[in-house]
Here is the input.
Amino acid sequence: MKKHLLLIITLLFAQLIVYSQTIPYKFGNVTFDELTMSGYPADTSANAIILNEFGEAFIENDSPEFLDLNYYGKIKIFNQKGQSEATITIPLYKSGGKEEEIIGVEAYTYNLVSGEIVKTKLPAKEVYREGLNEKHNVVKFTFPQVKDGSVLEYKYILRSPFYFYNFHEWTFQSDIPKLRSEYWAKIPGYFNYKVSLRGLLKLSSQSTTLLKDCFDPPGNLKSDCTFFKAAMDNIPAMKGEEYMTTLRNYLARIEFEIEEYLSPTTGGKERFSTTWKDVERQLLMDSKFGPLVDKNQKFYTQVIPAEIAAQTDSLEKAKLIYAFIKKSIAWNEKYGMLASNDPKNIIGKHSGNIADINLFLTGTLKAHGFNVYPVILSTRENGYPTTLYPILTDFNYIIANVIIGGKSYLLDATEKELDFGTIPFRCLNKEGRIVDYKKSNWINLVPKLFDTEQINVEMTVSSDGSIKGSFAGRKYDYAAIKERKKINSFSSMTDFQKSIQDKFTTGTIDSLKTENLDVLNEPLEVKFKFKLHEEDAADSKTIYLQPFIFDKLESNPLKQNIRTFPIDFGIKKRSITNLSITIPEGYEVESIVKNTNFVLADKSGFYKIGTEINGNKVNIQTILQLNETIYPSEAYPMLKELFSLIIKTQNEPIVLKKKTVNIATKK
Here is the structure.
């Protein structure tokens, strides 16, 4: 498996170097070669390409409370599909009454008309600012007169009051390829940042040098600067693929995290979260985290009903507390590691964010004598957290870890379909971090169990080609959670049955029922009867039977010819289908899918087909088993072949042929 490239660069003042600061572009310099460029040989599917991109981040001398990013970009449009790149959207962060802003937008469209370069300016009135949500605004504009072959050029200044903890990040990759992307950062000597290169790509060039007296704010606070430069050339587009976590896990980018600050007034040094112990202490002392657990113990003992508190079996008591909190507090769909409210208000409103609910759960279990600890993690959509050194901003979620009888249980009380000891699929993202003064450590979030589904179908085929039968589907663990959510989204079982009927266009279903819909520690079962009406084949010598009529794989989920990223299923998988078919009297099987055992490399999975014919009974069993949660990109061809085999199997008919009758002539 390709590993993420993680390069840690410590910015130190080693020597004074006079370094060229010539900006690597000339605004307005668009050439005939760029305008006549018809495609990108390295990626013939590209509809557009970034020809050049540059960013320079520095703290303003006159306004040292702001970090400015001077941004420049030049885009080539190849065809109509690429014209969507003519709309630029710039996200702006806001918090605590402060917000980022965009200054000095300049944008031009260049077209080749009758052999001459025609330049069209974007009117200032067509730059729009919109509120997106409570944390973000956006600035948007669309280039004018965009056509196939256009070159777009623009620049702006992004001014941010948020830079102390995280200097401006730079992203090298996007959804279209780039010929070149370069970033400069001038960091005053008062700051020392950890700089990391994330993703799978390598830099084309990189340097760290010293600029003398480059920072000169009011108040005689002049200092030298660390001058950091990094560039990449011929950068491939970042395209999403099936079965993967967020693209951000693999996105080539530079990140900054504050490590040390030297006060210009006192000369004192302040270090920031340089060890996990520092970070955990910071969280445990935060009024919206640790004290919510430890300083509300009396309240947590009183909030639980007496009959639950009186339970003597530890595991059963923990399960009852978990069920009570899950029922009493609804998740408001908001994430976060810090609580938004006081525990009394949370239970009073019966609503809260992730931290509200799971810190409440942690505190309540602790108040009732359990060894329990909060665990911070990053969801699959948020990306992998860094484990080499602590960066709190990598995390966006919290769950609880309780130890009962020497066994560890991970708990999340945000969804009613979750059983005790099960966390949501969104949390299955490698490792989480236990936060405690003594027990701090990494903990595996991915269970060792198989996500299992089993289908049993019995069908009887009549001589006219019609079919009657029964379906029984059983799902375990995460497959069951997903199905329970689906069923609970319908207002009635009648609506759920109708949703199945709508997909079963060639027949009818009835007598649908479920078992263990609310019994979360048991497999979920869905059963129904069905009829399939085929074209009248009463006089036909041959019947073509499609045995795989439920949960059929319609297309290969692995669509790319070449896979760049690991294939992440999140959890190991097992799927079993058992078909029992009674064929009509007077017919025999002429052809049937062949017995097959397709095994992946290193026995990391298999797809097995087994058939048996016994008189008028035909039995078919298929088993798909994936023994790994994450497969390297090198395994992609075999996985793709495996799914292709499943599709071929499920589309291969059983051919029934009418038996030949020999009539003896009487003498």
Remarks:
- The chain is about 15% helix and 40% strand.
- Residues 636-651 form the longest helix (16 residues).
- The CA atoms of residues 370 and 402 lie 7 Å apart.
- The two ends are 79 Å apart (CA to CA).
